[in-house]
Amino acid sequence: MNAQAVKPKVRIATTSLAGCFGCHMSFLDIDERILPLLDVVEFDRSPLTDIKRCGPCDVGIVEGGVCNAENVHVLREFRNNCKILVAIGACAANGGLPAQRNHLDLRDILEEVYQTDPGVGHGGIPNDPELPLPLNQVHPIHEVVKVDYFLPGCPPPADAIWKFLTDLIAGRTPHLGHGLIHYD
Amino acid sequence: MSDVFNIDGREVPFTPGQTVMQAALTAGVFIPHLCYHPEFKPHGSCKLCTVKVNGQPASSCTLPAAAGMEVESNTPEILDKRKMLLQMLLVEGNHFCPSCEKSGHCKLQALGYELEVMTPHFNQFYPNRPVDASHHDVLLDFNRCILCELCIRASAEVDKKNVFALSGRGITKHLIVNAESGRLADTDFALADKAAQVCPVGVILPKRVGFAVPIGQRRFDAAPISAHVDEFVPVAPARQGERQ
Ligand code: SF4
Ligand code: SF4
Ligand code: FES
């Protein structure tokens, strides 16, 4: 036997819902380690590939919480297609910064921002049918779908993402330990 | 040598009158805790220090040590319960660590790391708790209060000012400021008060400090909270006596 069976690549999808793309930026901070990673993984829907719909995947990585109707649809698409769903970052895990609006009334917020605030107001509350409707409150993703793993941090450091992914790909239970697990 | 008990298979000596927590910390055995403070009488409210003694759950911070006790602390069962308590505390308030000046110095957060709390797990309450920024030197951010009553105890027992109290029952229980207006500025609270130093989380914050200590040099950055066990060793009984 001269040829080893070629191991199929682990197919990964990623998305940012109500997040700031900071977790994706932190993922790119793995720097040149992206090259050995690409030997064993391939990307499906992701801001890195510009594929618009998530197909069947091994791992789905979701940044950001759920703040509008579109977030809910994308999140469900990920859950339906990904064997393992990972919440990455503070916002996916507890709502994070966007959830700081949760104790305010949605209409009051929209009116202040788009109508009464002297700095940005005047245009009126946007109501283009293309725009997804905001939810009354921002929610962490595990309040909407089942989540298999959580990777905390705002954002998680590149080394934590690397450790998590390499553990997962190698078939180990991901384990971060002191210094890699943090909430800020 | 009879004044010894056993914790997770390790012998811990004690002096009569010591609690299991006090003896364990003195012997260098860390037990997670939030409402325990080395300078104050045990309070027994957060239940994070729960252990099993001869098979029965008990709060190690209030339980007097006794010779021959078999104490279980770091078992999967107990660690799991402690983790759940932390998760309940996290969802009950608004803990957005990236904007909290206590981050890196906070015991709730450090215990989350220690016990590997990767997710708050439960549904978030997102309570509405306005901050009190009225005082010249101190900000009160009630969003992070875990009701440990350390500030209440410090203000009453050490500062003799009674600035803080709890109000309400059950899930509506919350920290209040003892002033007609409810504002900290309308009390004799001062930055130098003991009550300004004891909050284990990010509620009572000195103003004009901000994120002064860089990430990497904060209290729990280098080593996990369990490695800080020396800092939690009870102060000499004589000093405790003075307080009563
Ligand atoms: S009090 Fe602690 S757990 Fe809460 S937000 Fe601040 S650092 Fe995080
Ligand atoms: S403000 Fe801090 S010290 Fe006071 S009860 Fe709340 S958590 Fe405890
Ligand atoms: S430390 Fe014992 S109950 Fe809080």
Describe the sheet with the most strands of chain B: 5 strands, mixed
How much helical structure, as a percent, in the residues of chain A? 25-40%
Mean pLDDT of chain A: 94
CATH superfamily of one domain in chain A: NADH:ubiquinone oxidoreductase-like, 20kDa subunit
| Uncertain runs of chain A | none
- How many individual domains of chain B? 2
Major beta sheet, strand line-up of chain B = 2-1-5-3-4
How far is it from the N-terminal to the C-terminal residue of chain B, by CA? Answer: 31 Å
- CATH architectural designation of the largest domain in chain B: 2-Layer Sandwich
Characterise this structure.
The complex is a heterodimer of chains A (184) and B (244). By secondary structure, chain A is of the alpha/beta class. Chain A is built from six helices and seven strands; from the N terminus they run E-H-H-E-E-E-H-E-H-H-E-E-H. Chain A has helices spanning 22-28, 34-40, 69-81, 89-94, 106-116, 158-169, and strands at residues 10-16, 41-43, 57-63, 66-68, 82-88, 134-139, 149-151. The longest helix of chain A is centred in the middle third of the chain and has 13 residues, at 69-81. With 244 residues, chain B is α+β, with helices and mostly antiparallel strands. Chain B has a five-stranded mixed β-sheet, with no helix packed on it. The two termini of chain B are 31 Å apart. Residues 238-244 of chain B have low confidence and may be disordered. Chains A and B meet through helix 4 and strand 7 of A and helix 3 of B.
